[in-house]
Design brief:
By secondary structure, this protein is of the alpha+beta class. The chain contains 28 helices and 17 strands. The strands form four sheets. A six-stranded mixed sheet has the order 12-14-13-15-16-17, with helices on both faces. The chain has a five-stranded antiparallel sheet with strand order 1-2-3-4-5, sandwiched between helices. Strand 4 and strand 5 form a beta hairpin. About 8% of the residues have low confidence.
């Protein structure tokens, strides 16, 4: 049986035109030298899925899905990489016998096997032992039925120090046990990491167990204030809490069908939602919502509904999540009485489902309550509140909705009339309109898939106009990139095709990209040493791969470069850093005003003046 190597994979990849394969599943239309269609990975009415025939890759400007011919088949047909390679080889008439042993197919298969085995053991302990009967009684008292126990594969870790270890030590190598996080190896001691806890397994998209969350349940543990109520798996080669989502494997079909996902904080909340007929809910595991979570969900949904705890911490979490989801369709469900969804379900049986489906509010409505100042008799607090809410109201597309929110804001403010608040919103609205670049006609793309550049702006000039490269721009008006994002994309593009640029920038002390995903790709490229387009296609994975294809798809510049172009790009980074410093000072000043700290207010005002003078503002 043949083992796949890089040479063979590249030969198979180049034997078939990616357009011919994708067009079997997606209707593609010629657009310049590329092909355009509706993305098969997320619902859309305006085509944003592009296939680059020259460089043999695809990229969706709507959801970010990207890759080569193998990646398309993997994601579209939900098959392993080796099967995708075999399918392309068959299309090309290349005879290929692949060794399909799981351990070779996935270097982490032993870890998956261990976690799957542990889940079976935990579940058996809960459902078939004396201690398990006591734990089931505890769950029943908390409203968790036997049907839910089976549905979510809930288990129990015994209080013995090494019950799991003794059960699996003969089947798995010590290195696998060590890397799993399920067994702790200390000096002269080996013990289970989870002991005496009800176990909730977390699965990957294929249903394989990748992590656990354990909850204490025994009376003596519940009264022990030194014990954490929940304990989650540590990061392992198969589990990253910044990307993994509880229940996504079960919820995926419902999410795709409804085009909506409910984002919750804990697995008990998700279970409560399921009991109320809501099957498209997921939760992060022991971490706040991250860009990794959102990126994973954007491939299957168009709408996010935030259902976090009703206490102060939960409402602050919603506020932070709204910042991450600023460009997405979002609604918020506020849980009354400061309860979390699971508590609300127990306090008001059968009401959670109705609240989640009928009790949604727009983000601006939530923010109007969340950001509302405590002291509304303070005139400055009212002014600051108007400054906070005006741009958010101005960004709403519907003028009718804007009018309704202006009226709501006026009801809250004791010292302002409708026309005063409307004036503030109108000013912000004009700024929003002036800053937006809209395109009325469909884009026709060059080989780099970049749409026509925005109108020339003298404040953003890389070099002499006659030498200026095409500024990379978003493919559609609903995905607008800032000036620094454009600069980051272009600089990365130059690094990919001109190794000397990568060497030069890497030598700059403390150089940083502004956005994490671009910095991450930059660091990966440095680590790989000599890079080129073909080499990177085969070596980058996950988020790095998506960012790489974003760069290739968003930038269309001439082959020739100059030192002046790179110098001007780097100046934009310096400008962005100074802008961030100034914004931080201004945010601190606003907070100082709100708290009435006049001494700090004066100090920060002087710092802002000095910063502006230094920057020539």
């Amino acid at each position: 049986m043949a083992l796949l190597d890089k040479v063979m994979i590249e030969e198979i990849r180049s034997s078939i035109n990616i357009v011919d394969v994708i067009s079997q599943h997606v209707h593609l239309s010629k657009a310049g030298t590329n092909y355009l269609g509706l993305c098969p990975f997320h619902g859309e009415k305006t085509p944003s899925f592009n296939v680059n025939a020259q460089k043999q890759f695809y990229y969706c400007f709507g959801c970010g899905k990207s890759g080569d011919i193998f990646k398309f088949l993997e994601d579209y047909k939900q098959i392993p990489f080796r099967e995708a390679v075999k399918e392309v080889a068959d299309m090309a008439g290349i005879v290929l016998e692949i060794d399909t042993r799981p351990a070779q197919d996935n270097p982490n298969q032993a870890l998956f096997d261990l976690h799957n085995q542990a889940a079976r053991i935990y579940h058996t302990v809960l459902t078939a032992t004396e201690e398990g009967a006591k734990a089931r009684e505890y769950l029943h008292n908390r409203g968790i039925s036997d049907e839910i126990i089976e549905k979510f594969n809930i288990g129990l870790s015994l209080s013995d120090n090494d019950f799991l270890y003794q059960s699996v030590k003969q089947k798995f190598e010590e290195s696998v046990l060590t890397n799993s996080g399920l067994i702790t190896f200390a000096e002269n001691r080996i013990f289970d990491s989870f002991r005496g806890r009800i176990m909730f397994p977390l699965n990957d998209k294929n249903g394989q167990v990748i992590a656990f969350s354990g909850r204490i349940w025994r009376p003596e543990d519940l009264s022990n204030k030194t014990l954490a109520k929940y304990k989650n798996s540590t990061t392992t080669p198969i589990f990253n809490k910044s990307e993994a989502l509880y229940n996504l494997d079960r919820a995926s079909q419902s999410i795709k069908k409804t085009r909506e996902v409910y984002l919750m904080e804990g697995f008990m909340d998700v279970i409560a939602a399921y009991e109320n007929g809501v099957s498209n809910a997921v939760a992060s595991m022991g971490t706040a919502l991250t860009e990794g979570h959102i990126r994973k969900l954007r491939s299957v949904t168009k709408k996010f509904i935030l259902v976090y705890d009703g206490d102060k911490a939960g409402q602050n979490a919603i506020y932070k999540a709204l910042n991450l989801l600023a460009s997405d369709d979002v609604e918020v469900v506020r849980i009354p009485d400061g309860l979390d969804p699971d508590e609300y379900n127990k306090a008001y049986p059968g009401a959670l489902g109705t609240l989640m489906t009928s009790g949604r509010m727009a983000p601006v409505e939530f923010l109007m309550d969340h950001l509302r100042p405590a002291n509304l008799s303070n005139l400055q607090a009212q002014l600051d509140f108007i400054d906070l809410m005006s741009p958010k109201i101005a960004a709403i597309q519907s003028l009718t909705a804007q009018d309704a929110y202006i009226k709501r804001l006026v009801e809250i403010l004791p010292d302002f009339e409708y026309n005063q608040v409307e004036s503030a919103v109108n000013q912000r609205r004009e700024n929003v309109v002036a800053s937006q670049v809209s395109y009325d006609e469909p884009f026709m793309f060059d080989y780099g898939m970049a749409p026509p550049p925005p109108p020339e702006d003298d404040s953003y000039s890389f070099m002499d106009k006659s030498m200026a490269p095409v500024v990379p721009a978003p493919i559609s008006s609903n995905k607008k990139l800032s000036q620094i994002e454009l600069s980051e994309l272009q600089l990365l593009h130059r690094m990919i095709y001109h190794p000397s640029v990568l060497t030069r920038v890497a030598s700059i002390h403390d150089f940083q990209f502004v956005h994490r995903r671009y910095q991450q790709l930059f660091e990966k490229m440095i680590g790989l040493g000599e890079v080129d387009e073909t080499g990177l296609m085969g070596q980058l994975m996950g988020e790095d791969s998506e960012t790489f294809y974003e760069v290739l798809s968003s930038v269309n510049v001439p082959d020739d470069i100059s030192d002046q172009e790179i110098n001007d790009l780097l100046k934009n980074f310096v400008k962005a850093a100074k802008g961030s410093q100034l914004q931080a000072l201004q945010d601190q000043l606003a907070q100082a005003k709100q708290t009435g700290n006049s001494a700090l207010e004066l100090q920060l005002t002087l710092q802002i003046i000095a910063q502006k003078q230094q920057d020539g503002v």
